[in-house]
Amino acid sequence: MKKHFLLLLLLIPNFNVNAQWVQTINPYGLVYALAISETNIFAGTGGSGIYLSTNNGTSWTAVNNGLGDTFVMSIAESGTNIFAGTYGGGIYLSTNNGTSWTAVNNGLKNTYVTSIAISGTNIFIGTEGPVSDGVYLSTNNGASWTTVNNGLIKPYSLPATIISFAISGTNIFAGGGGLYLTSNNGTNWTEVDSGLTNPNIHAIAISGTNIFAGTEGGVFLTINNGINWTAVNNGLTNTHILALAVSGTNIFAGTEGGIFLSTNNGANWTAINNGLTDTVVISLAVIGTNIFAGTSSNGVFKATISSLLNATSIKQSKEITPPHSFTLDQNYPNPFNPSTTINYALPKDCKVVLEVYNIMGQNVATLVNGRMSAGMHSVEFNAANLSSGIYFYKIKAGEYSQVKKSILIK
Question: Are residues 337 and 291 in the same domain?
């Protein structure tokens, strides 16, 4: 069984005043999934069923009446209905906040349910197991299910395994054994993987027009609904991504080697593991000003987002050292529309000229032209007045010269 997941939460007094993460009381062990319904928090576990907290994780109660499978891989809320996907027992529905559960598997041939997504009155579930059936859709609150796999067929004529979803307006992204997009509620799926060097997708997260994919080979970003993807792994010391979560402009990544935070849309990542005694992080969820992390064996940890941001700022300030050589980084994001950021490093004070050229060799922008101090520098290239295409940016700093390619897609 692959590792794919979602998240959960809790809270105990912090006996380590320096720790950002604090382990909560219950549930213990492996935590797969989290869902919020008004003031109720549901947590799905690997073998202990579902837990409910009505006080922001301070205490939890097992709510397993009628639940025939205690390996709960995913949970989702639709109004007063709570759906739970299990690994072998199919889908369960509660209409009374978990007091009781009923199996709703009519039409479901694959009962290994790894993910759930809800878009209006449409409920999508992703499956895997001995033989994947791809994606199922219910339009009647789980009373019946039908497969919606047109375009999901992989080699050997089998539907792709789907273990993660994300919804952006009318676009629904499904990831697992590849990454797919539908804009017509599953009638058709299109593979959107250009630039993805690893097809094993464990998590998808959306922040405005930025869409992040967590893979077994790191984090990838698209700004054009999956037409192109760019790796954004600077600072990630572990690139086996199991979970992603978004809070404003802050992106959190759970990995097999702890949790990482990016405050600049993935351009840089910083480890934030102080107090985290289990660094295999399967699931993440943001609830208000708090973030919760579900781990592989030690249950749930909780931290305030502000404490993690403060720790990140302090750590980054301590790590600032003068660069040892001239460098010109790849612009980020790339492809871009309409602006992108270019970073460069100077080991000493010198005159810098940074210019942008089109494919005809014509200068279209001069970004820097003057004496700059030693250190890391960043400049924005705004191409709002330019047409789509390939543009080259060139730096001349002292005796150093370098050229890189960027792609503008409008």
Answer: no
Q: How far apart are CA 369 and CA 355, in angstroms?
A: 9
Asked if 146 and 219 sit in the same domain, the reply is yes
- Domain span at 377: 327-408
Q: How far apart are CA 260 and CA 390, in angstroms?
A: 32
Task: Count CA within 13 A, CB hemisphere, residue 165.
Answer: 27
Alpha carbon 165 to its chain's center = 10
Which whole-number Å values give the CA distances from 357 to 93, 360, 361, 363, 392, in the listed order?
A: 58, 8, 5, 4, 5
Choosing from 268, 291, 317, the residue where a domain stops is: 317
Are both 281 and 346 inside the same structural domain?
no
* DSSP SS3 for 52: strand
Q: Are 160 and 199 contained in the same domain?
A: yes
Q: What's the domain count of the chain?
A: 2
Length of the chain: 410
Higher pLDDT, 96 or 322: 96
Q: Taking residues 398-409, what's their average pLDDT?
A: 92
Q: Residue 308 is inside which H or E element, if any?
A: helix 305-318
Contacts of 132 (CB under 8 A, 6+ apart): 110, 158, 159, 160, 161, 162, 177
- Tokens representing 71? 């390996």
DSSP string, 324-362: SS-EEPPPBSSSBSSEEEEEEEESS-EEEEEEEEETTS-
Assess whether 303 and 340 both reside in one domain. Answer: no
Q: How many CB atoms lie within 10 A of CB 103?
A: 18
pLDDT one-digit tens code per residue, 149-206: 998 876 545 577 899 999 988 899 999 988 999 999 999 999 998 889 998 999 999 9
Q: Where are the beta strands (DSSP E) in 185-240?
A: 190-191, 201-207, 210-215, 218-222, 230-231
Whether 32 and 149 share a structural domain: yes
Listed residues 266, 295, 317: the one ending a domain:
317
Is the same domain home to 78 and 204? yes
User: Using CA atoms, how far apart are residues 271 and 303, in angstroms rounded to an integer?
Assistant: 14
> How are beta strands 290-295 and 162-168 bridged, if at all?
unpaired
Residue 9 lies in a domain: no
285 and 345 part of one domain: no
Beta bridge partners of 406: 391
Q: Are 299 and 29 in contact (CB under 8 A)?
A: yes
In a domain, 16, yes or no: no
